[in-house]
Design a protein that fits this description.
- The complex is a heterodimer of chains A (123) and B (107).
- Chain A has no helices and 11 strands.
- Chain A has strands spanning 3-7, 10-12, 18-25, 34-39, 45-51, 58-60, 68-73, 78-83, 92-99, 110-113, 117-121.
- In chain A, strands 2, 4, 5, 6, 9, 10 and 11 form a 7-stranded mixed sheet that branches.
- Helices cover 0% and strands 48% of the residues of chain B.
- The radius of gyration of chain B is 13 Å and the shape is globular.
- The chains are: A mainly beta (123), B mainly beta (107).
- The A-B interface holds A 35, 44-47, 50, 59-62, 95, 100, 107-111, 113-116 and B 1, 32, 34, 36, 42-46, 49-50, 55, 87, 89-101.
Chain lengths: 123, 107
């Protein structure tokens, strides 16, 4: 059974930093690009970033570019999101998700999602 | 970035009804569209990918169609577990973007 388990969320002040983790199991982590997405309370879905299998290729949404960094440790089957210079508008549930298809980093859908971790940015 | 619009934004339906939700893209995206269903407090669940393909485990009452800029999700014989919000997502290029959602509730 595929499992994605996010952790690291919490309350942080504006301008602060947080690192999220996503522990993956039940599939060959080293065969899939992985993404982070978020959903503000009562709002829609926003894709944030994707990492290729090797992490040599990454893409970001403009809303987080220069502030957030995606990375992965394939030896630990874990995906990370380092979030710096956090803003109130970054408050959301953050999900990690697995690409539907394996291999190269190409835009595609997500067939597995974690349960999410809540990040609240507030003073 | 490619923008997606959905219609209607909400609808009321009864168990057994056929429901149709539309998604329109600001740019042509060939067949690169996915549909998701979300229940409050839960992550989205993939229903359709590549415009019309169903992942393993998704009931056949769900179907997707369309190409280019106009897409449709059809739910035949709506079941109690189908209520919630439906989102479309373009898979044509980065940044990946989602539609604003269509909320389906009980009539």
């Amino acid at each position: 059974e595929v499992q994605l388990l996010e952790s690291g969320g919490g309350l942080v002040q504006p301008g602060g930093s947080l690192r999220l983790s996503c522990s993956a199991s039940g599939f060959t982590f080293t065969s899939y690009a992985m993404s982070w997405l978020r959903q503000a309370p009562g709002k829609g879905l926003e894709w944030i970033s994707v990492s290729s299998v090797s992490a040599r290729a990454t893409y970001y949404a403009d809303s987080v570019k220069g502030r957030f960094t995606i990375s992965r440790d394939n030896s630990k089957n874990t995906l990370y999101l380092q979030m710096n210079s956090l803003r109130v508008e970054d408050t959301a549930v953050y999900y990690c998700a697995k690409d539907t298809g394996s291999g190269a980093i190409v835009p595609q859908s997500f067939d597995q999602w974690g349960q999410g971790t809540l990040v609240t940015v507030s003073s | 970035a490619i923008q997606l619009t959905q219609s209607p934004s909400s609808l009321s339906a009864s168990v057994g009804d056929t429901v149709t939700i539309s998604c329109r893209s600001s740019h042509g995206i060939s067949g690169s569209l996915a549909w998701y269903h979300q229940i409050p407090g839960k992550p989205p669940r993939l229903l359709v990918y590549d415009g019309s393909s169903l992942p393993s485990g998704v009931p056949s009452r769900f179907s997707g169609s369309g190409f280019g800029t106009d897409f449709t999700l059809t739910i035949n014989s709506l079941q109690p577990e189908d209520f919630g919000t439906y989102f479309c997502q373009q898979c044509n290029n980065y940044p990946l973007t989602f539609g604003p959602g269509t909320k389906v509730d009980v009539k």
